[in-house]
Amino acid sequence: MSGATTQPTLGSFVHQELNFKASPERVYEALLDERQFAAFSGSPARVQREEGGAFSLVGGRVTGRNVELIPNRRIVQAWRVVPWEAGIYSIARFELASKGGGTRLVLDHSGFPPEDVAARAVGWQRVYWDPLRKYLES
């Protein structure tokens, strides 16, 4: 994908930078509104839209809590996937900024099991970015 980079380091870190032809407000809403998330991902989503609020995405395969929410600028989540051992949470940080009439999104995802780095990098692309781009830009 044009504009996306993945840099795994220390075995449990993914850094991705993407550009979307949509406003930061629209990207932020798509990531946190359960109806929009379900629409672009094709899977059920439940999201409590406050700091400390729980979420369940991709039909319950991804769960966690919102750690920090700065409308239209930042989302920080304690994030986990079903196969991880109980109690293991990673941190997914989404930074949004206006760029050229669209949005520059920077994802930093860290703290997951080292053997999971390839799956996380591919998963973000396949489960989030490709369908989100199609949803926002169609």
Describe the protein's architecture and organization.
The chain is α+β, with helices and mostly antiparallel strands and 138 residues long. It has one domain: Alpha-D-Glucose-1,6-Bisphosphate, Chain A, domain 4 (2-Layer Sandwich). Helices cover 28% and strands 36% of the residues. The chain contains 3 helices and 7 strands. It has a 7-stranded antiparallel beta sheet, covered by helices on one side. Strand 2 and strand 3 form a beta hairpin. The chain is globular and about 40 Å long. The protein starts with 12 loop residues before the first strand and ends with a helix. About 5% of the residues have low confidence.
Question: How is the topology of this model organized?
Answer:
Layout: E1 13-20, H1 24-32, H2 34-41, E2 46-47, E3 54-57, E4 62-70, E5 74-81, E6 90-99, E7 102-110, H3 117-137
Antiparallel strand pairs: 1-7, 2-3, 3-4, 4-5, 5-6, 6-7
Number of strands: 7
Listing every helix as H and every strand as E from the N terminus to the C terminus, the arrangement reads EHHEEEEEEH
Which percent range fits the helix content?
Answer: 25-40%
Structural class: alpha+beta
Specify the number of helices.
3
Please state how the strands of the largest beta sheet are arranged side by side.
1-7-6-5-4-3-2
Distance between the termini: 17 Å
Given this structure, which CATH class is correct? Alpha Beta
Sheet having the most strands:
7 strands, antiparallel
What sort of overall outline do the alpha carbons produce when their principal axes are compared? globular
Assembly state of the chains shown: single chain
Strand content: 35-45%
Under CATH, the homologous superfamily reads START domain
CATH topology: Alpha-D-Glucose-1,6-Bisphosphate, Chain A, domain 4
Gyration radius from CA atoms, angstroms? 14 Å
| CATH architecture assignment | 2-Layer Sandwich
